[in-house]
Amino acid sequence: MGTDVQSFAVANLRRRPAAVQTGGFVIGFDPGTTSPYINYATPEPGARPDGRDVAALVEAFRERGLKPRLEFAPDAAPAVEPVLRQAGFTTEAVHEYLVCTPATLTMPSMPGPAAAARPASDVAAHFVETPSTDEEYASVDAALSEAFEGMYDSSPEGVARLRRTQEGGGAVRFVRSPDGLCAGGASCSAPAVGTSEVGGVGTRPAFRGRGIASAVTAALAGTMFAQGARSVWLEYSGEGSRRVYERVGFTPQGTRLYMSLES
User: Fold this and answer.
1) Exposure b/e, 186-207, CB count within 10 A at least 16 = b
2) Residues 183-237 pLDDT 10s
3) Domain identity same for 117 and 235
4) pTM, rounded to two decimals
5) Which of 97, 158, 189, 191 has the fewest CB atoms within 10 Å of its CB?
6) Which residue, 97, 117, 139, sits at the end of a domain?
7) Signal sequence span per UniProt (predicted)?
8) Which domain holds residue 63?
9) Does residue 21 sit in the same domain as residue 122?
């Protein structure tokens, strides 16, 4: 599965507005943001870069005023980590990824006739929706910013990225809060090489523990399978979220390594 995940990462970064390829690496630059979580590189599966390739990679980031940063599945390109370390790159994190297939997907119980009797404050009684208006996309972006505790600010560029995801063959799903805004949501990139990545699953603190994350994750996976994907994968941030994903059919398959070079 590591090669599939890495091949997807390459294909997905090539979709970025200003993608760059150099020395066996693909860098997904997005001029709409300086976020290192969006502007990063990944190696092609089986890449064997040398010191000059890494220097060219670093220069591509530096000339744009960005931190050199990579995310990749090390098993799919085992020669990459040693040469990065020789150039001074260090580990930011190692994340396990989970994979779901059509055979393992378990859809959570959806509301039926009894939902009408449930209190309006119980957002789990609401259906998963697809945003369609600017206001709904903005509400999803704002909710995710709140869910991730200011890791990134809600912005017009973030709203535009969500809309591009939905309109470019991926999917954005959310659950509406009683005030008509977004209680929680997530997005999934358009499939490539038979797989797709769910990212940014987040629920506003006031609405956690009500099944929102599992509902939107399962809905996204089902949407991708209907579009022909053979698998969907994601990374989790803690044991609590891992259990949420495992309940809807995601299982551990490998790890991804995050590395960066400080100034």
Assistant:
1) bbbbbbbbebbbbbbbbbbeeb
2) 999 999 999 999 999 998 999 999 999 999 999 999 999 999 999 999 999 999 8
3) yes
4) 0.87
5) 97
6) 97
7) none
8) 2-97
9) no
